[in-house]
Fold this protein.
Amino acid sequence: METAKELIMKRIIGEIILSSSPGEVMRRWRELFDITQLEIAAKLAISPSVISDYEGGRRKSPGSFFIKRFVQSLLEIDYARGGKVLRQFSSLFKTSSDAILDLYEFPSPIKLRDIVGVMDGEFLACPFLSEKKLLGYTVVDSIKAILSMSGADFFQLLGSTSERAVIFTKTTTGRSPLVAVRVTPLKPAAIILHGVTRLDNIAVELAKLEHIPLVLSRKESIDALIKALHSVRT
């Protein structure tokens, strides 16, 4: 059986390789581990400018061998510091939450606009990112999440990759989910709200600040919403 460390390593490597912006994903994970470009460059015995160029998209996407070394270095640096981030992610594979109503990883990427279409969705923020490719989705009971999930538990919402849509149900204004995402270092690729009766403009502004597509689903019920999502499973 794979260890939590091996699962985490696979998760990060897979997310970088499958992303249309691998350098951006590398930066996101490096910052999540609170590691500077200088530190990771020193560990890899390369110039910091190489890391900067990859993350800024100024250099051709790294190969799988480099990505593996990059991720190994993140974990080794964290381990040398006491393994704080590794422990947080290890708990992800040991716990579950009944706040998660449905979770799925797509065998191949699906465009956000296709998800929005089956959910009777309307873009509230960042519609220009409708072509973004998603690797999965998570449907969340917002009320249960607020009452029972800790900060570390939030990582469960992202499944095996953050390149996914997180769909928050039972949210009347949309503000709480966006505030939670705002203070979390690892962001979903898109946020979909269901059950909104009086949209809070702050939710829309937070989505714009985070550069995350925000969508309002008008499906008549949670069951109908999940059924629609199942229709795009491949």
Remarks:
- Strands lie at 100-111, 121-125, 133-141, 165-169, 190-194, 214-217.
- Residues 4-92 form a domain with the 434 Repressor (Amino-terminal Domain) fold (CATH 1.10.260).
- The chain is about 45% helix and 15% strand.
- The chain has two domains: 4-92, 100-230.
